[in-house]
Amino acid sequence: MSTPPAFQSQDAPKPLPFDPSKLKGLSEQMIRSHWENNYGGSVKALAAVKARLAQAAGDKDLPPYVYNDLKREHLIRTGSVVLHELYFENLGGSGKAAPAERDAISEAFGSFDEWEAEFRRIGTGLAGGSGWVILGFNLHTRQLENYWMADHAHGPAATVPILVMDMYEHSYQIDYGAAAAKYVDAFFQNIQWAIVSARLAGARAM
C-alpha cells in the first residue's frame, strides 16, 4: 500500500536560492554549514519521523503517549524545515526595500525605521540562545506585526511569515562569535525584498 500524502516528506534539502559566496557579511562557510547541517539535518529528521509515523499509524497497540512523542518531533522538525526554507529564501538580495515595501511597513508601524528598530531589538534580545524573529501578516487581525519565537514549535496563530530571521547561535557564531548584533546588521544587508513583497501580496490575497 502506498504511503498517504500526510506521511510523505521531501527527499532532500532545497538548494540555496543564491550564491553563498556573494553575501555581504555572511561567510560562505557559515551559510553552507547552516544549510547542510542544521537545515539539512532537519530535513532528514523529518523524513525519518514521518516514516515512523506511517508505520505507527497501523499499530493499534501502540499507546497514545508513545505515538505523541513522534507527533511532538513531527511538529518541531516541520517548524525547523519550513522556517529555514523561508529564511534562506529571503536572503541574497541588496537589503534595500523598494518604496512599496517601505510604505506597507510604515502603514503598520508608523514608519519603516520604527519597524526595523523593533525587529532588530527582538533579534538582539535573543542573542546567546535560540529563536526566530518573524515579520508576519496575521490573517485574523489583517495586521503586519513583528513576532518573537523561542523555537520551531510555537508560532503566532493564523500568521503568514513575511520576513524570517534565524537567531539560533548556529546562524552567526562561525562569523561573529557572541556578537549577535553584528549578524543582525549583516542580515539586513542581504534581505531579498522582492520575496518579502511577494509573500505579503500572497498573504493579503488570502
Radius of gyration, taken over Cα atoms and rounded to an integer in Å: 18 Å
- Main beta sheet strand tally, sense and closure: 3 strands, antiparallel
Question: How many structural domains?
Answer: 2
Shape, principal axes of CA atoms: globular
Number of helices: 7
Class derived from helix and strand content: mainly alpha
Q: Looking at the chains present, what oligomeric state does this protein adopt? A: single chain
CATH topology of the largest domain: minor pseudopilin epsh fold
Measure the end-to-end span: 36 Å
pLDDT averaged over residues: 95
* Secondary structure: number of strands: 3
CATH C-level of the largest domain? Alpha Beta
Low-confidence stretches: none
Query: Strand portion, in percent?
Result: 5-15%
- What is the assigned CATH homologous superfamily of the largest domain? Iron/manganese superoxide dismutase, C-terminal domain
Helical residue percent band: 40-55%
Order of helices and strands: HHHHEEEHHH
In the CATH hierarchy, what is the architecture of the largest domain at level 2?
Answer: 3-Layer(bab) Sandwich
Spatially, the strands of the biggest sheet line up as 2-1-3
